[in-house]
Design a protein that fits this description.
Tscrpt_reg_LuxR_C; single chain; DNA-binding CsgD family transcriptional regulator; disordered C terminus; Arc Repressor Mutant, subunit A; Sig_transdc_resp-reg_C-effctor; mainly alpha
């Protein structure tokens, strides 16, 4: 049934874009029901394209749905095409979320630095071991010490005064 709705939409998109958009919406729902994410995103894209002619204020939402669907699938070419279309409509391209923040927990790199500090390594030793610049190591060490609430002497020779690196005990 999804293919039928899609075919109807394709036949009508040039002459009756509003009706075509309805058929693409039906195809999108049916693809969703049977777990076909690529087809869901493709139907959302076609729906958005059809709506640009008759209801341009609604088109970006459907194209953005397509971008998210294609991005989740790693379909970079499809994602780029939809983002280009959004830019043509004057919409900012959707951005991927940034890197995860670790809050008061140590990041994986900070855990490595903390382990080396606990073993008595100097900043220079850490830089050579982890292939980092001394300045980068200084920043990591400062963050580790701040998050652990200790001074450098409190972490050397063993775990910090709190005896825990993060919520999972550093493991």
């Amino acid at each position: 049934m999804a293919e039928l709705a899609l075919a109807r939409g394709l036949m009508l998109r040039a002459t009756e874009p509003a009706q075509a958009a309805e058929h693409f919406a039906e195809a999108q729902r049916r693809w969703q029901d049977i777990g076909r994410p690529y087809e869901v995103a493709k139907a959302a894209e076609r729906r958005g394209d059809a709506l640009t002619c008759v209801c341009p204020e609604d088109a970006p939402a459907h194209l953005a749905d397509a971008v998210r669907g294609f991005t989740d699938l790693g379909a970079t070419g499809d994602t780029a095409r939809c983002q280009h279309r959004l830019r043509e409509l004057g919409v900012q391209a959707l951005r991927r979320p940034g890197r995860r923040g670790y809050g008061n927990e140590l990041s994986p790199r900070e855990l490595e630095v903390a382990d080396l500090l606990a073993g008595g390594a100097t900043n220079q030793d850490i830089a050579q071991t982890l292939f980092l610049s001394p300045r980068t190591v200084e920043k990591h060490v400062a963050r580790v010490l701040a998050k652990l609430g200790t001074e450098r002497k409190g972490i050397q020779g063993g775990r910090s005064n709190s005896d825990s690196y993060g919520s999972d005990g550093g493991a």
